[in-house]
Amino acid sequence: MNHRLSLMKPSASLVFMSRAKEMQKTDPTVIGLAGGEPDFATPDRISMAAIHSLTEGNTHYVIGPGIPELRAAIAKKLCEENDIPCDENCILVTPGGKNAIYLAIHAVLNEGDEAIILNPAWVSYEPIVIAAGGTPVNVKLNYKRDYRITAEALEAACTEKTRILIINYPNNPTGRILHKEEADVLETFLLKHPNVYLLSDEIYERIVYDKKYSVSMASRPAVAERVITMNGFSKSVAMTGWRMGYLVSNKEVFQSAYKLYQHSLSCMSGFLQVGAIEAFKCQREIEDMRKIYEQRRDMFVGILNSIPGVSCPKPEGAFYAWVYFDVKGMNSEEICEYLLKNAKVVGMPGTAYGEENVACMRFSFANATAELEDAANRIREAILRLN
Ligand SMILES: Cc1ncc(COP(=O)(O)O)c(C=O)c1O
Fold first, then answer.
1. Residue of 14, 122, 166 best suited for mutating to test ligand 1, as the one with most atoms within 8 Å of CB
2. What is the pLDDT of residue 16?
3. Per the confidence metrics, is the pTM higher than 0.90?
4. Whether residue 168 has its Cβ less than 6 Å from ligand 1
5. Dist. CA 291–CA 278, nearest whole Å
6. What does DSSP assign to residue 56?
7. Cα–ligand 1 centroid distance for 156 (angstroms)
8. Could you tell me the pLDDT band of residue 18, with boundaries at 50, 70 and 90?
9. Which atom of ligand 1 is nearest the CA belonging to 318?
């Protein structure tokens, strides 16, 4: 067996999601808030375009890094919405955002190179770095300081082996966005370390609240050349099952990633790409979903914050509540198990994201509003029983 793969842990979110599904078979009242999947249907015009293309016979190999119309639409979006002036020839359309991250990390890392991962972090960065033969270096940002990125934390983790820094804003799990001040810290860091690439995972970029805006690092001209931006359709357009993502980078990274792509995937499905083009015409549907997430956030977080010993900062983006518990000295995993048994609500323990210093959990609020309200009230009752 491959020794690198034996070092990998199974995906904690997939483990908890299947645990919820398993429990629901015998007890349909169990509420699963462990996953990260919009409960909305993919907008109709996207599905209809894909179906039409499929029935028209678009069912063969579509060799290339993505169909030109889709790459052009992505380039236009990045330029207009994210201030990223990109060359559409450097856009790679990938099967899901996860694969875009996999390709980017493999394109850049050599055996033994180090990758800085800011914690709390999404569960797949570390295993992907390990699969690429790299060494993950987890930088624990401080919850007491709102998980702000600091120059000191980055510098302390950086060595001559550091090749890539991975960031994710809006963040899963904390819901934080990238503010100008932290973008400045990142820019200064990159300028100081010319051999380091920045991988910016912006998969939740369209889901931001309170009229805020999360900075895209590739919009900074001084460092744009070394920023690899990854985004996709899964979260913002409710297209998780389509497996559609993309990567934009400089030519060198693109060519390296595209070689691996050719030998592992060949190409993307043509009719799915035709469908994805329509996503750029779904501004209204995307905004409608965003507004509903915002209402759910306010309701869910409001109920949780009314529980003694529980606090949840309002997430600025994405659809996760990152909730702190100060109850009976219990740690993240104990609380997770307790709520599973006593509230029948499945969430994720903070430790799955590398947060060991404080008892916390992540709950997705991409579920139906009534179900979320029920879940929040059950959590409330279960914690009150403890106190
Ligand atoms: C932070 C983050 N990045 C990337 C992904 C992967 O997205 P996709 O489903 O498009 O592969 C996810 C999905 O949960 C995510 O939360």
1. 122
2. 78
3. yes
4. yes
5. 21
6. T
7. 28
8. confident
9. 16
pLDDT tens figures, 73-121: 999 999 999 999 988 999 999 999 999 999 999 999 999 999 999 999 9
Is CATH 3.40.50.1000 the right assignment for the domain spanning 44-281? no
Given the structure tokens 């999601």, which residue do they identify?
17
Domains 3-42+284-386 and 44-281 agree in fold = no
Residue by residue, DSSP assigns 284-340 as HHHHHHHHHHHHHHHHHHHHHHTSTTEE-PPPSBTTEEEEEE-STT--HHHHHHHHH
CATH number at 3-42+284-386: 3.90.1150.10
Other C-beta atoms closer than 10 Å to the C-beta of 354 total 22
Relative to the CA of 244, which ligand 1 atom is closest? Answer: 10
Q: Report domain extents, the chain.
A: 3-42+284-386, 44-281
Residues 184, 149: contact at Cβ < 8 Å? no
Please give the pLDDT value at position 4.
Answer: 85
- In this prediction, residues 337-356 reach a mean pLDDT of 95
Environment class of 201 (CB within 10 Å of its CB; exposed 0-12, middle 13-18, buried 19+): buried
